[in-house]
Amino acid sequence: MTTDVISGMLTTAKGSLERFHDVTTDDDGALTFAHGGVLCVVQGTELEEGLPVLNLTCVVAWDLPESADPEHDVPRRVGLGVGEGLFGTPRVVRGERGWDVTLRYAFPAAGLGEGPMGTLLMLVVSSASSMRAELVGS
Q1: Euclidean distance between the first and final Cα of the chain, in Å?
Q2: Helices 2-17 and 114-136 meet at what angle, rounded to 10?
Q3: The pTM is what?
Q4: Among 62, 85, 105, 111, which one is most buried in terms of CB atoms within 10 A?
Q5: What DSSP string runs through 46-99?
Q6: Cα 26 from Cα 34, distance rounded (Å)
Q7: Looking at the record's lineage, which domain of life comes first (predicted)?
């Protein structure tokens, strides 16, 4: 039953996103798309029995340079709310070639129609795009 609910949530998410983006369905059912240079994936899972959720992960930027200047220090800027939005949790990780920044948001989506689902997803994606613009200057 839960697999059907998750599949339905992903179908609704795809329909809502296709109004704005080209969306690809991966072999595992995840949805991938890009928005303003931000790569995004929507996955469905069950946190616990009876609690199916969608998880939206946005790869905001990668390989950003380290800087001793506080005005350009990526972790500091993200911590102070660069591109701050109402939805999503930013994360900064030190990669091999610099700082990688993601924004994640998980929410129970069962029963949401395409309109409300699209609004919620686009609020998160817009926050990720704003964050990217402030971090990489585009």
Answers
A1: 44
A2: 60
A3: 0.91
A4: 105
A5: EEETTEEEEEEEEEEEEEEPP-SSTTT-HHHHHHTTTT--SS-EEEEEEETTEE
A6: 14
A7: Bacteria
